[in-house]
Specification:
Elements (H helix, E strand, L loop, with lengths): L2 E7 L6 H11 L5 E7 L6 H11 L3 E6 L5 H11 L4 E4 L9 H10 L6 E6 L6 H17 L12 E4 H7 L9 H8 L3 E6 L13 H14 L3 H29 L7 H33 L8 E3 L2 H8 L1
Parallel strand pairs: 1-2, 1-4, 2-3, 5-7
Antiparallel strand pairs: 3-8, 4-6, 5-6
GO molecular function, one term: glycosyltransferase activity
Pfam family, one: Glycos_transf_2
Protein name: Glycosyltransferase family 2 protein
Length: 312
């Protein structure tokens, strides 16, 4: 298999069939497969995906038992993809199928392990664009992403990198974080970004916060090192202040009197303690979940027969 197209599907009953049909036409010159992963959709996406698998020999369908999240669904798809190149595509038709060939041709030069798409103009809602900018800025410092690289969900990954990514067994996958743990040999190519043809984005404040915490806590020691430096700075400041207060007391020139200094010390110390306990709690929680044996996804049903035939 030369090319695998992994599509996480969530409430896209009206777009996934036209997208699949368009992919059949665009990729006719390649040996390819389309891996549809239904991420617990509440509409009839599962039935539509099942019909597509029955209709096309190139389509394989996996349905998860509940909504695990986009990255978990993508990781599931990567575990089942068998292509030499794996392209991750959104289900909303905003990534033009023709652009897949642009990513493939860039990858065929052998210059990059991963090829991201970038857009001259994005047709996302302003809130999603804002969230993307926040996450991209954060990942520059947390996972070592180049500042000028946009981490698009529409990307191509070589087989060798995917084989390393799918070794992850924790419940909190962040695909771009896993990519940068494997390779820094990444590039980008400009493609068109279309407006949504149906529905609305599933990008919410809750998902943005969850992604922020996942990136901030789960894929780098940078946060805890920042707080360690901050704690050391506060400790030095406290020691210097104590020394100044002591000199003032010995020279009968007290700068802060009575409950003022007590309240300042208690409030400052309590704030620092709570902040550190919160960060450590996030780390310990992630560590506990990662070692609890919980899978990143649970398959409801899959197409093992098609995979066996494709491999043979």
């Amino acid at each position: 298999m030369y090319l695998s197209i992994v599509i996480p599907v969530y409430n896209s009953e009206r777009t996934i069939a036209p997208l699949t049909e368009r992919l059949q036409a665009c990729l006719a010159g390649y040996l390819f497969e389309i891996v549809l992963v239904n991420d617990g959709s509440s509409d009839s996406s599962e039935a539509v995906c099942q019909q597509l698998e029955d209709q096309y020999d190139t389509v394989r369908f996996i349905s998860l038992r509940r909504n695990f999240g986009e990255f978990n669904a993508v990781l599931c798809g990567l575990n089942h993809a068998i292509g030499q190149y794996i392209v991750i595509v959104d289900d909303d038709f905003q990534n033009p199928p023709d652009a897949i060939l642009t990513l493939v041709k860039t990858a065929e030069t052998g210059q990059y392990d991963v090829v991201y798409s970038r857009y001259a103009r994005k047709h996302h809602h302003w809130f999603r664009n804002l969230g993307s900018r926040i996450v991209n800025t954060l990942t520059t410092y947390s996972i070592g992403k180049p500042k000028d690289l946009y981490l698009s969900s529409f990307k191509l990954v070589r087989r060798e990198v995917v084989d390393e990514i799918i070794r992850y067994r924790g419940p909190y996958p962040y695909i771009d974080g896993l990519i940068f743990r494997v390779t820094r040999n990444v590039g980008s190519v400009e493609v068109t970004h279309n407006a949504r043809i149906d529905g609305h984005s599933n990008y919410t404040v809750r998902k943005l916060i969850a992604l922020f915490l996942n990136v901030f806590i789960g894929y780098s020691l940078w946060p805890i090192r920042v707080f360690t430096i901050l704690g050391a700075a506060l400790l030095v400041l406290g020691l210097l202040s104590g020394f100044v207060f002591l000199i003032g007391w010995l020279s009968n020139a007290v700068f802060i009197r009575g409950w003022g200094i007590v309240a300042w010390v208690i409030i400052t110390a309590l704030g620092v303690q709570l902040l550190f306990l919160g960060v450590l709690g996030e780390y310990l929680g992630k560590l506990f979940m990662a070692h609890s044996g919980l899978p990143p996804y649970a398959i409801k049903k899959g197409s093992n027969e098609k995979r066996a035939n494709a491999v043979s």
